[in-house]
Amino acid sequence: MLFYIVLLYCCSLAGVLSQLSIHSRHGRECVSPCFSLQQRNNSTSPKIKVDLDNSTGVAVLRMQSPPVNSLSLDFLTEFCINLEKLEMDKSCRGLIITSTLSKVFSAGLDIMEMYGKSPERCGEFWKAVQEMWLKLYGSNMATIAAINGSSPAGGCLMSIGCDYRIMADNPRYSIGLNETQLGIVAPFWFKDTLVNTVGNRAAELSLELGLLYSAPDALKIGLVDQLVPEDQVLSTAQDTMSKWLAVPDHITKSMMRKQTIDKLLSNREADITNFVSFITKDSIQRSLRMYLEMLKSRKA
Amino acid sequence: MLFYIVLLYCCSLAGVLSQLSIHSRHGRECVSPCFSLQQRNNSTSPKIKVDLDNSTGVAVLRMQSPPVNSLSLDFLTEFCINLEKLEMDKSCRGLIITSTLSKVFSAGLDIMEMYGKSPERCGEFWKAVQEMWLKLYGSNMATIAAINGSSPAGGCLMSIGCDYRIMADNPRYSIGLNETQLGIVAPFWFKDTLVNTVGNRAAELSLELGLLYSAPDALKIGLVDQLVPEDQVLSTAQDTMSKWLAVPDHITKSMMRKQTIDKLLSNREADITNFVSFITKDSIQRSLRMYLEMLKSRKA
Amino acid sequence: MLFYIVLLYCCSLAGVLSQLSIHSRHGRECVSPCFSLQQRNNSTSPKIKVDLDNSTGVAVLRMQSPPVNSLSLDFLTEFCINLEKLEMDKSCRGLIITSTLSKVFSAGLDIMEMYGKSPERCGEFWKAVQEMWLKLYGSNMATIAAINGSSPAGGCLMSIGCDYRIMADNPRYSIGLNETQLGIVAPFWFKDTLVNTVGNRAAELSLELGLLYSAPDALKIGLVDQLVPEDQVLSTAQDTMSKWLAVPDHITKSMMRKQTIDKLLSNREADITNFVSFITKDSIQRSLRMYLEMLKSRKA
């Protein structure tokens, strides 16, 4: 059952647990005063902050949507608009993605986008998730994830969509495509990206068990490339980026990733249909409601 | 020449060597009194014993066909019938495969099924080998191989057909797709399963040299997932299984393996034809006869 | 810009640097007296020496084209003729490739073949590069690279085209497909061969950054299989070869590599067209001229 599984999932997030919560786009959907407050803040301030250094050609994209940088439709839309702007800006050659929040990079897809929504809205949301991955995995810029906190599910997808991953050397931070633990099957392009990163067998184990890896374990299987002390994640990313930008160009990247990207491009509608028909099932919706009520009672 | 190669193969099996022998289905085909005796036993008793624990939903399948759990047509048929029963039993969600024999998990395909048999019979045998793999690799149950002894060739195929492999921590036990050492080319789906497990390069080396790996070496290349003391293989498998069964479902497994399984399904007849035309060659049959005569003289 | 990048490349070759130079097929194209001298020598002596030991069935192919065993059209043609002869010689079952030069196995493709040449000539050259790889990667012989010096770019391609790689245990020697550093994109079959050897992620990092690995680092990622003291590279290759030849046959090898080879075979003309249109671009030719002038001034 989704109910106890999500519970497991929370427990496994350890450091993030105390802050983990669900927020929605509209005040009236909020499940507790706490969320409501956050929503008001979010509605007036951007969820993402981008600083482009014209002297180096490197942009830093900071995710700043408390409490856990959930990937809501609004968040994803803002993310994609920013990515597209940078992509078209010839002066920008490198992108570093990081978080302004303490202890969390991104907790992944916003569960509120999947609960009580119309099929149309669910489809719109999923299309935005696809768009985020397509833009990131296929970016012409050199991309580095500066993972300064936990990064489960969609946060992990965002990380492995980059060219290089630097994570805070803190065993309390975890990363992984743990959708299976949530009763959700990772779609084929999540799977393909993970296989490309850690190989077939590690991906199989990881996806079948919905594993979250501590930072040191993530390094061992190659899910991240490097661990550094927490306060050096961003500066190391900057140093590493200068090495990437010293390389003439990145046609090679497109050669490595084209097949994986083309597979989603030619199956995009079917993938949306699959997601919508799964997530709008009564059984799945019931589980989500139980989960939300549990969260509410914990807050009370 | 197959002759000296099979000799090499025996030598490499070390611990199993003293027991290694060939048995047949019918008394009249027996090549020594010793085999005959074993055959009488086998004809009246099942080669496989299955215990399903309804409280946990976990079945333990014990291979108990002395001397070495050879995969004969009878054995494979019994194996597949048992697997199918468990697959259809909704109360069974996990399967552990192990051996009741000392020092051996399974020595692989029964050579007597390939010697002096009609093409029809050889084809029937090969179809049963395919069926075993298709049922195991594509099982909806969580499957764990509790490898409590050596597991060459077909025994290795059975192991890598499972979701997880726990092996006795004994350097005298070995595992590997060593068909090449026997003058036999591993078919493409053996190769695909191995590549999925240990990656392309390790599979290439392994298959081209027909390598058998000691338990510690098998762990190093990822051919098995875990080593434990010999007397804890089964109990560790039980503990591990409970973790697998805590995960909601296994659609992910089908997504990971579908392509590999479909490749055999759409080439099944051609694969049988290939095997039959190879194994019925005069040169191969001559080598097999020399091998059998050598075994007879060793016994005398 | 290619200019400064090639400079980087030279620096990374360290030990080879002092000797690195460009040579051409015709005296009139020589860019310095030094090259001219080498050319005269080369025109009268073979660039490759082959010794076949009929008692073992093992041929040793020695590359002896100073200063750095550059893969010129002449060199490649000689290489392919020798390979074809050995392939057709039933008494030859194993091939060891090594270098007679100090500190370098092969520095890769000869840059002079790409500068100031007609499209037809460039196409002829590229076809020879393809031919070398097709013959080596698809060889029916067991092939071992005895890498007794640095082996960048095309030298690395030649190495990973073999079945097994033994490298001198010297951290000053490096190996890798560093074409990206030279402003050149490795073609898809370079990429495929590397992925087959070190896996997708290591290949991606390696190609996107144009990395050269020191011998110890190359061992770590599986780019070479074994390191031995410099004076034991060839003898270890001989010992290893005897193990490979003890295995009955190598149909397995063809099964492992067929798909990768077929991909080039069915795209051969397009691959040549791509290369020619890229290398004959004005911008690329300008960069090559700047590089050659820099080399000239260094020599002066």
TrEMBL record, chains A, B, C:
It catalyses: (3Z)-octenoyl-CoA = (2E)-octenoyl-CoA; (3Z)-decenoyl-CoA = (2E)-decenoyl-CoA; (3Z)-hexenoyl-CoA = (2E)-hexenoyl-CoA; (2E)-tetradecenoyl-CoA = (3Z)-tetradecenoyl-CoA. GO terms for molecular function: delta(3)-delta(2)-enoyl-CoA isomerase activity. Keywords: Acetylation, Fatty acid metabolism, Isomerase, Lipid metabolism, Mitochondrion, Signal, Transit peptide. One of its GO terms (biological process) is fatty acid beta-oxidation. It is found in: Mitochondrion matrix. Pfam families: ECH_1. Its main location: mitochondrion. It comes from the Eukaryota. Pathway: Lipid metabolism; fatty acid beta-oxidation. Coiled coil: none annotated. One of its GO terms (cellular component) is mitochondrial matrix. Belongs to the enoyl-CoA hydratase/isomerase family. Homotrimer. This is Enoyl-CoA delta isomerase 1, mitochondrial. It comes from Oncorhynchus tshawytscha (Chinook salmon). The lineage of its organism: Eukaryota, Metazoa, Chordata, Craniata, Vertebrata. The gene is ECI1.
